[in-house]
Amino acid sequence: MEISMIFKSKDGTAQGVAKQRFIESLATPDKRIINDPYACEFVFGSAVVKMIGHKFCVWLSQKILPGWHEHLVARTRFIDELVEEALINEAEQYVILGAGYDTRAHRLNFSDPFRVFEVDQPEVQERKRKKLPSVLLNNDRIVYVPVDFSYQSISKQLIESGFDNSKSTIFTLEGVSQYVSKEDLSSLVQEIDSLTQNTEATFYMSYIDELFTTNPEECCGAGFQKPGEKFELIRGLSAKSGEPWVSFYADTEIERILTINGFSIEENAALADLNSRYFSPVGRTIPESQLFNLERFVVAKKAVTNTTA
Ligand SMILES: C[S@@+](CC[C@H](N)C(=O)[O-])C[C@H]1O[C@@H](n2cnc3c(N)ncnc32)[C@H](O)[C@@H]1O
Questions:
Q1: CA–CA gap between residue 273 and residue 74 (Å, rounded)
Q2: 202 pairs with which residues across the strands?
Q3: Is the peptide bond before 113 cis (omega within 30 degrees of 0)?
Q4: Side-chain half-sphere exposure of 175, counting CA atoms within 13 A
Q5: Contact, 176 vs 98, CB < 8 A?
Q6: Can you tell me the distance from the alpha carbon of 137 to that of 130, in angstroms, rounded to the nearest whole number?
Q7: Superfamily per CATH, domain 65-302
Q8: Is the CB of 175 under 6 A from ligand 1?
Q9: Is the CB of 17 under 6 A from ligand 1?
Q10: Which of 45, 264, 266, 292 is most buried, judging by how many CB atoms fall within 10 Å of its CB?
Q11: What pLDDT does 111 receive?
């Protein structure tokens, strides 16, 4: 692939996240916090990354952007656990919004007749399906639903693809809200509310704390070096890849969007909250000076509202 193709290809950020999952998966089982055996399919130069290895890649990442790698893999682990818990609580279908190169549909232990709906822009889905090994694609459980949130409705496409609005459902929106307008996010949550009028639902979303634009020091651990510059570095790289960050949120804004659509927040965590949960047990406690609470991870739930159905 030409270098220029990596940029402006609509999947640059999805590739970036897959790369961090690939790097984490290179660690030995007793040291890693996630394992994504399929992430390598989406990583440009994966053989070189593999040769460099987990230790050096993470060291380099900590030099350039402390906490970046850890925040992305902690986010993946957090959602893996949430989906696994939903399965135990008998969720019957899963909608991955802005799925990118997420391979949860292949990694987690779903059993039939569970359905996973992967929603993303058509171009990104097409590329994903070309890159995944065909043995994984022959999987009746996964339904690909091409939707661009900026001008298409998820309800129509999901229902036409077999989404059953009487089934208990989990929705996740991982690392996507910063790329869509606030109006589009509100419409999306409204649609999720309409789709789940007759059933229980769990909704995970992450969002970039607006404090990062106003007071970045406030979001970082003591001794974190130049948070404002690091934030601008990420914003600049996203913009260069053709996927600029356009939306940042206050906690109260997210609470309002969720509450008016029938959801109650159960958890709102950031990297600092997950340090002792994920990194300390494998001997990788993140020092304060590398804690980068850029993004909030929110879990919201709703019970059945329409009892007459
Ligand atoms: C940073 S990637 C995250 C991908 C995946 N959720 C993960 O964590 O690996 C952002 C994803 O949002 C998707 N996305 C951005 N804008 C979108 C839109 N308007 N409609 C649908 N998907 C969108 C991109 O295609 C990309 O897959």
A1: 10
A2: 170, 301
A3: yes
A4: 23
A5: yes
A6: 9
A7: Vaccinia Virus protein VP39 (3.40.50.150)
A8: yes
A9: yes
A10: 292
A11: 84
CA of 18 to the centre of ligand 1 (A): 12
Tokens 């919201």 — which residue?
Answer: 300
Instruction: Say how many C-beta atoms besides its own lie within 10 A of residue 199's C-beta.
Output: 21
Say yes or no: CB of residue 98 within 6 Å of ligand 1.
yes
Instruction: Report the alpha-carbon distance of residue 220 to residue 291 in Å, rounded.
Output: 6
- CA atoms within 13 Å, Cβ hemisphere of 96: 25
Q: What angle do CA 15, 207, 33 make, to 5 degrees?
A: 55
Global pTM exceeds 0.85: yes
How many CA atoms, within 13 angstroms, populate the side-chain half-sphere of residue 16?
19
pLDDT at 307: 59
> Helix/strand/coil (H, E, C) string of the chain?
CCHHHHCCCCCHHHHHHHHHHHHHHCCCCCCCCCCCCCHHHHCCCHHHHHHHHHHHHHHHHHHHCCCHHHHHHHHHHHHHHHHHHHHHCCCCEEEEECCCCCCHHHHCCCCCCCEEEEEECHHHHHHHHHHCCHHHHCCCCEEEEECCCCCCCHHHHHHHCCCCCCCCEEEEECCCHHHCCHHHHHHHHHHHHHHCCCCCEEEEEEEEECHHHHCHHHHECCCCCCHHHHHHHHHHHHHHCCCCCCCCECHHHHHHHHHCCCCEEEEEECHHHHHHHHHHHHCCCCCHHHCECCEEEEEEEECCCCCCC
Tell me the torsion sign for CA atoms 249, 251, 257, 263: positive
Does the CB atom of residue 121 touch ligand 1 within 6 A?
yes
Domain boundaries, the chain: 65-302
Low-confidence residues of the chain: pLDDT under 70: 1-9, 138, 305-309
